[in-house]
């Protein structure tokens, strides 16, 4: 039981935070509204997202990027699937959604970058090459300053007024700067050693920050369910069970389709098993903090589409549960192949991770 909790505590906490947040927001809408406005406004949320991204970036070993750059095909495939094909696929599913809020939220989930830590954690867990997933993480999170606003402007500008320059500026300060600073800190040997020695603590701190973001977003969602959408919103009602079922299926389908395309392209190019595993996870996972920031920020989608955060929460939670099972299956296949002395499918040299990361 102890081992189970150590490996799954974040997934369990994620479900509990979403459930408890919705319940509290629904039961105490006025108090929750006052607390969120006073202690967790847009500015505080931006600072927390920046802190989370810094904590995760400072633990990424940039020296391993050279390994991935020596053979860039896996990185290019994963970046193409994550930053181009997934945003292009989302508009196909948007008309199926029951409300503009959920359609916009699905687009946001598809347009944000790869997870900062989870892709590498699941890659290592499955016996894959985490040097590839690390570089995909860096490229997509650095490029989200341009890619994410571009896709949102392209596919959502007709239904919501987006300030492209202000969005790019906010993502630059909230996503790119802390990620870059984290890597710059690692250039100093003493600070790099300190970050490596406290890697678990920094990872847990980042995960706790993610749980705070999830909890407050769930509280706000529950509050809106109790009081109804604001008059300034698009006028959509609270999502029904049918609407949530459709958007959940869309999120899961998008994630699995992206993973399948990434794995299929890797197989066509005859990449080895370790690289294929990394491409599968890094090409299909999406980060939560940036998505929640975009979905809830009043200057972006928060005011007009109050339910847009739901698909982001659903996408992130479902991908973690799905990828845990996928990683275990990959690990079993790699171990079986390795025991038969096939050098093409040997693990990439990293010990299996404990599955403790979800950003």
In short:
The longest helix has 31 residues, at 309-339. The chain has helices at residues 2-27, 29-39, 42-57, 65-70, 73-93, 100-111, 118-125, 130-156, 164-185, 189-197, 199-227, 241-268, 273-284, 288-296, 309-339.
Describe the structure.
The chain has helices at residues 2-27, 29-39, 42-57, 65-70, 73-93, 100-111, 118-125, 130-156, 164-185, 189-197, 199-227, 241-268, 273-284, 288-296, 309-339. It has one domain: Na+/H+ antiporter like fold, CATH 1.20.1530.20. With 359 residues, the protein is mostly helical. α8 runs antiparallel to α9 (164-185). Helices cover 74% and strands 0% of the residues. The longest helix has 31 residues, at 309-339.
